[in-house]
Records
---
Amino acid sequence: MDIYNDTVKGLVLNPEFRKWVLNPNPERNNTWKHYLSTNPTSVKDVELARELILELFSNQFPLQDKEYKEIWDHIETKTTKEDQQKQFAKVVPIRQGMVQEKPTSTQDSFQIGYFWRIASILLLALGVGFFASRYTLPEPTVEIPQPVKKVVFNNPPGVKSSISLADGTRVMLNAGSSLSYEESRFKAVRDVFLEGEAFFEVAHDPGRPFTVNAGGVNTTALGTSFNIMAYKDEKQMVSLVTGKVSIALPNSKKEEILLAPKEAISISPDKMLVSRTKFDEDAILAWTRKTIVFEDTKLVEAIRALENWYGVRFHFQNQPKPGKRLSGKFHNETLENVLEGLSYTAGLDFRIEKDQVNITFN
C-alpha cells in the first residue's frame, strides 16, 4: 500500500501510519515529517486521523487490516447522508458527559461533527470496555531527535592555530588539518576526531581519559603530550613526548599498544603494517616551531607539507624520477627560499605565480 495516501480514511487504514502514531521512532518520525513538509494541505487530515487512532485504537487491542476496513465501511454508510444536510454541529466531548450546542460554519460543522460521529460508531464497533481501557494507557508522544552540535576547528592550507579545549587541553593544529568533537558528549567522555596533524598537551583527569580518533586509530591518554600525524592516504605516526598512551587499531584482535616517552609508532595507510621506533623530538615537533624538516622524505609527502604550509598548489610540468626524495631544514623561510634550497639537491626548477607553483624536474 502507498503510505502517502492523503485522505483520513486512507491514513486510518494505513498500517504504516498507525505504527507511527502508536509506536513512534526516529525513522517513522522522519518519514511522516517529510510527508507533511511536501503535502502541507494534508495537515488537517493527518491530525484528524491521528486523533481517531489515539482515542480509539491501542496496541493493547490490536486490529487486523480487514477489521479496520469493515469498521470504516460501516462509518461511511452511517454518515454520508447526514454530512450533506448538517448546518449546525452538536459537539459531544468524548471525555465529558455534557452536551454543548453552538453555531459553526458549514465547513467547521462538517469537520467537528464528522470526527465525533466516526468516534461514536467506532466506539460501538469496538465495545465500551475498550474505550474505558484507553484511559489506562500513556499518551503516545512523538519525539523529534535533536541535532548533535559539533565543535569543529578547521585550518585551511597556510594557517596554523593554537586551541584551548573546554577541559584545559591545549592543541596546536597544523595547516590543512581539522579537529572536531560533540559538545554535549565531551563533558562526560573526552574524545576528539583528527584529520591531518596536531600536537596535544592533555589536561590530567584520571576519571576521563582523553582519546583521539584519527583514521580509525584511537590514541588514549590521561595527562600527557604527544603528536599525531594522520593525513589521508599516508602513513600515520603517533609520537609520545611525555607520559603514556595506549593505541588501538581498527578491527584488530591484538592487545592495545603502549608507548613510552620518546617512542613513536608508524602505521601504514592500510593499517596492516605497524612498527615501533625512537624519534627525534626536534624533527617531529619542528612544525610547531616554524621549522620545516625533510629527512629523506617522499616527494608526495614533501609537496603536501609545502602546500599546507604556504597555502599553494603545485603543478608538475614533467614527471620526476621514480623514488625521488627530499631533504632539508628551513626555519621560518619564505616559499621562494625553500624551493631555492631544494632546487640544488632535488634537481628542479620552479616558477611561483600567486598561489600556483610550477615545477620542472631536470
---
Amino acid sequence: MGASSGDQGLQDFPAGIQVGDVLGGTVAEVTRTGGLTVTLDGFAARPVGTVSSQDIHWAWNRPPVVDVGHRITAQVIAVDPDEGEVRLAMTATRHPELWAFLAAREPDEILSGTVTAIERFGVFVALDEGPAHPVFPGVGFISMAELSWRRVESVTDVVLIGQPVSCEFLQFDTWNGEARLSLKATQPDPFDALDDSIATDGRRFRGVVTKRLSFGVVVRIADGVEGLIPLRPVPEDEVAENRGAEVSAEEGDEVTVVVTAFDRARRRVTLRAASSDGSAHHAAP
C-alpha cells in the first residue's frame, strides 16, 4: 500500500526545514510543563512543532498567556529527522534584534560593558554594544564561578555596580536571552604558574588555612590556589603523643605543607602538613 500524500509530507518534512527558518503556525496543545505543540502552516497532518516553556518568553516568571488556537511565529532552533519534529523558539521572533546579536557572538570573543546589578547567583552586565534586554538589567551575565580564579567571599570584593568590565563570551543562553560571560578568563590563571613537578620534588609551601571541613583542611598555598590535606581518622588506641603531631590549625593559621598530588586538568592539589623536622603528616579529625 502506498503512502498517503499526508504521510509523504511528514516524511519529507525535516529535509524541507532548516535551523534559522521563521515559521508560523497554530497552537494545538499546551503541555503539562508549560510548553506548546504547534501545527505549522503547510504541515496540517499533525502538530510537528514544539516550543519548550523556556523558549516562549524570557520573562519565565511571568510568561505571556498562550492558549490552544493562538497563532504564533517562531524560529527553528533544532530539527529532529527521526521524529519528524522541529524545536521552535518564540523568543527569537519576539526580540529579533537581541536574538540576532547574541547568535552572532563567537566563543572567546571579548565583550565590554558595565556592571548594572549584583545578585546572589551572579552579576548582570549592560553591554556597550547590542540592544538592551527586555526583562533583565543587562544582556551580559557572569555567574559566581566565572568571576575570579580565587575564592569569592563577597561579589563586591571583585566588582562593584557601575564598574566597567571586559569579559570573554562563553555561550548564548537561549533560555534567558543572555550572553554568558567570564571575567576570570581575561585574567591570568594562577595554576599556570605552578609546575607539575611540585608533586614529586618534595617542595614545601608556607600556606594559610582557609577552611576546616569534615574530610580535611583547605590550605591556600599561592594566590588563587588552594589544596586539601585529607582527613586521616586517628585510631582509638593511638597514643596521645602521636595525635599531637596531627594538624590542629584553625582558619587563618599558617602551616607548612608538601604537595603529594597535582591534577592540573581537574584543578586539584592534595597536600600533607610538614612538621618542623621536615616530615609530613595528615590532618587530624
---
Amino acid sequence: MKLLIGNDDGIFAKGVRSLANALAEDGHDVTVVCPDRERSATGHSLTMHQPIRAEPVQAMFHPAVKAWSCSGTPSDCIKLALGALLDSFPDFVLAGINHGANTGTDILYSGTVSAAMEGYIEGIPSIAFSLTSFTSQEFGSAVEFARSFMAQLSDRPPQVPMLLNVNVPAVPSDRIAGVTLARQGVRRYTDVFQKRIDPRGKTYYWLAGEVLEEIDDEKGENTLPIDMAAIADNYITITPLQAKLICRDTLSQIEQWQWLEKLSFSRSQKSLFD
C-alpha cells in the first residue's frame, strides 16, 4: 500500500521513525512528512502568514522511505504532502507513533490526531497511533500492532473513508490484554499558570496542571468502555472519530424552542443576513 505518515513530535522522533521503517520493511510504499521540530498540542492549526519550507531527509529512515522535514504544523505537513509532494493520493494517511496518549478531550488539542484528520478530510482513510507514555522509548508493542493492523487493512480495505484513533498501552506485548473499541471520554485538568521571571526581569507564564477527573458522561448498559479506562486495563483502544462537530442532540432540543420564531431583528440587523 501507499502510505503517508506524519506526526507532531517532529521528524527526529523515535515513534515516527520506528513506524515508518517497520512498514517499509513490510513492503509498503512509505512517505514521511513531519514538522522540523516539536509541534505537540497545536491542534489543527495551519500556517497562513509565512512560507512553508520542506527539505528532504536522507538519514535515520529505511532506504525505501521518502522523508521530508517541514517548517509547518502537523496539518500543514499532510496538506503539503497531498497537494505538492506526492504524485498521487496514498491509500492511507497515518500519524504517529505519538509520545503520549491521545484520549478524552486531549484529542481536540492533538497535532497527531489533526494530522490524521487532514487525510480524512480529503477522503483518505486515516489512523492516528499513540503510545500511552511521554517518557517510554519502547515502541515495540505499538509498532507490532500497527504492522498487524495495516496488514489486515491491506487485505480488507475500508469501503468508505474513516478516521481511527488508536492508543497502545506502554507495556510489553505479553501484558497487552487485548484490543477493544472505545468511546472518547472527557478529561478535565486543574489548569495552573505558573508566574515566573526571566533573566531580563520580564514576567512570563508557564501552563502547568494535572488531570482533575476523568468523566464517563454516557453511562448505561451495553456501552463501550471509555478510552482512558480501557487503557488503564492494558487494552489497545480503537476510537472512530469524525470531522463534523455538530451536536445533533442539542440541535433536536433547540428545534423545540418555540420562542425562536418570535425573535425580531431591526432593519440594520436584517441586512447582515442579506
---
Amino acid sequence: MNTTTTTATTRERALPLSVLAVAATTFSVVTTEMLPVGLLTSLSSGLGVSDGTAGLTVTLPGMVAALAALLLPVAVRSADRRTVLCTLTGLLAAANLLSALAPSFGVLLAARVLVGVCIGGVWAIAAGIGIRLVREEAAGRATTVIFSGIAVASVLGVPAGTFLGELAGWRWAFVAMGVFALAAAGLLAAVLPKLPSSEAVRLGAFPGLLRGAPLRAALLVVLLLVTGHFAAYTYVRPVLERVPDLGAGLISGLLLAYGVAGIAGNFVGGAFAARDPRRVLLAISASLAAVVLLMGPAGGSLLASVVLLVAWGLTYGGVSVSAQQWVMAAAPEAREAASALFAGVFNAAIALGALTGGLVADGRGVSDVLWLGGGLAGLALLVVAGAGAGTRKGRSPHSGARPHRRTEKRPENRTENRPEKQDVVSP
C-alpha cells in the first residue's frame, strides 16, 4: 500500500471533530450530574443537611431529566438539532454557575432542576446522533466515542471536581464545570453541521414502540442496572471512608482509577456490543452483581476494596453504550424516539437509585446500599437471560444492529454536512 493510499485510509477511519464535540457535551452533562457524588460530604456540611438529603442533588436532576428526555424532543421536533444542543449546553453552564452561587440548599436544588432539563434534552438527541455525523460503517465507533463522555466524566470530571472541592471549596467545582460547559457550547456551534429534524417525534409514538418485547426488555435491564448502580455508587465515598488506612486523598485517587477502568469498559463494551449487545449485557449484569455485593465483605481490606472498585468501573463502563446499541437494534425505524425512551428510563433510574440509596443509607446505614445495588443487578441478569430465551426461535433483539435498508436511504458519498433522512415517527 503506497503512502497516498495509507493517508486516505487513515482519513477515512478518523472521526470528524463534530463527534468529539458531542462527546465533550456528554462529558459536561454527566460530570455536572454526578459532581455532588464526589462533593457529598463537604456539600452536606456546608449547607447543613444530612448525606441522604444532599443526595437529592443527584435524585432531583434525574427525575427532571427523565421527563425532559421524553418531552423535549416532542417540543422541538422541527428545530435544528445543532441549535437545540448548543442552547441546552449553554443553559447547563448557567445552571452550574447558579449552583456555585446558591446561598441555601433550596436554591441549589432549583439550579439542579435546570441541570435535569439539560441532561434529559442532551441525551435524548446525542444518544442516537452519531449515525448522522459519519458513514454507516463508522456509526458504531462514533456512538462509542459519544458515550465515552460518561466514562471520561468519571475519570476527569468527578475526581477533578472532588479534588478542587477539597482544595478550594465545593462552590469552585461548580464554577469550573460552568466554564467548561460554556466552552463545549462554543465548540458545538463552531463544528457541528446543521442537523434538521429527521423525525417528527410525537408522544403517541412511545406507546407504540413499547409494544415491542425486545425494546421493553432492553429498557427494563437499563432500569434495573442503572438503579442498582446509582443506589450504591452515589454513596461510594462514605463506603470507602470506612476502609482502614484509606484517607481522603487516596479516595480521590481510587475514583480516578474507577474512571480509567470505566473508559476501558466503554470501548471494550462498545466493540463487542456492535455485534451482540444482549450477550455483552448478560456478562455485565453478572459481573456488576458480583462486584457490588463483594464490596461490603471486602470493606476490611484495602487491597480487596481497590481491586473491586476498579472492577466495578470496568464493568459499569460498558452499560450505557451496550444498552443503547440494544435499544437502537430493537427500534431501527425510530431512532430518536427510541433514544428518548432510553434517556428517559436511564435518568429515571439514576433518580430512583439515588433516592432509594439515600433512604437505605439514612435508615440502615451506607453499607446496606451495596446489597440493594447488587441485588438489582442480579435481577437484570435474569431479565437479559429471559430475553435471550424468548427470542431464540425468532429474531433476536440484537440481530437488528444493522438498520433495515428500507428505513434509511443514505447517499453514497454522504458527508457530515448532508445528514440522511429517516422515516417520520407518527402516533
